[in-house]
Amino acid sequence: xxxxxxxxxxxxxxxxxxHKNVLKEMExxxxxxxxxxxxxxxxxxxxxxxxxxxxxxxxxxEKIVPRPQGVSYPIWLSTTSELMLRPTEDTxxxxxxxxxxxIVVTSFEKWGYVVxxxxxxLNKEDEKKHNEELKRYGIGDESALVMGDKGNFYPLLKNKxxxxxxxxxDVSNExxxxxxxxxxxxxxxxxxxxxxx
Length: 197
Fold this sequence. Notes:
By secondary structure, this protein is α+β, with helices and mostly antiparallel strands.
């Protein structure tokens, strides 16, 4: 069973920190969808870094849960109240109850590897083997294989890293407490609580 998953009613409880203006948008439209401009405002000078990753994520996630027309980017959520982001100034926490069919669940830990443009290992032995391979080729910064020109010289290694990122979608019972989720949109009727600072 995946963290937060309630088998009896096929729903998951999820939490997401959003700007307080999301409430007005949901009130007006009945739904909230992430927009490129929101990501750019939130991440400022490093938004290009995240948008590149999100574009990759969207291509993979929409094969798991189809992306509704008009949706560009996912909304990130916590699968446990213990790991949810806490409210800060001008933000709120939305607690949701959503049918499982709308949710893409991923490994929080493996996403950390992806965000750093690193190889997502199968296990410790695979990680050791990969690091030895990098050392053999004299590669100190493996992110340069994906982000820089180094990947042009080692295309197989670059492709191996990018292909490994799909492992973030492999979650099981052992991953409880280390998962996160995304939705393509948040419908007003899914909100069960709003937590203010």
